[in-house]
What we know:
There is one protein chain. The chain is mostly helical and 176 residues long. It has helices at 2-23, 33-40, 44-50, 54-79, 82-95, 97-106, 110-123, 132-150, 158-173. The chain has nine helices and no strands. Helix 7 (110-123) packs across helix 8 (132-150). The protein is elongated.
Amino acid sequence: MKAVYRNSLRSKKLMQDAMIALLKKKPLSEISVTDLVKKADINRGTFYNHYNNPIDIIEEMKDELVEKLSSGLNEVSKTGDVTLLLDAISEHVKKNENDYRIIVKAIPTSFVDNMKTQIITQVKTFPVKTNPFTLYFIVNAIAGLYLDYLKGLLPFTFDQMTAECKKIIISLTFEE
């Protein structure tokens, strides 16, 4: 039984490595099952024993990263120290930076990127008292909050979220 488990892990690792190599050459939308099985040197049946399509590999990689982050933050979160939490997040992202880059590149974010560009362009026309880093931080926070709201992940109403965003942004960016 252990050999089967090891073979399964080995096959998944081969397919993930193949996916990473292929993503360096072309976008996810152009990667086929045939491309993956050839690159991983496995048969088609092995692929379908684990995944339905190439996107499933990326989703699994993403889930594995989130699980690593979650388990790594459990102990730090108990301290209640925000700086330790931010340090742990930064350390995790830095340690797994290549995997994050691959996943971010593979998953289309053009809609969100266009939205953020539009917000930045508009905010730059206002009399702001902040540096560019703060501006990008705020815009990414806004985009993330609205996406999470639309996904149903936030415990507040749309109006509560909007009001709080306004308070924070006004206090950080606009001249009084």
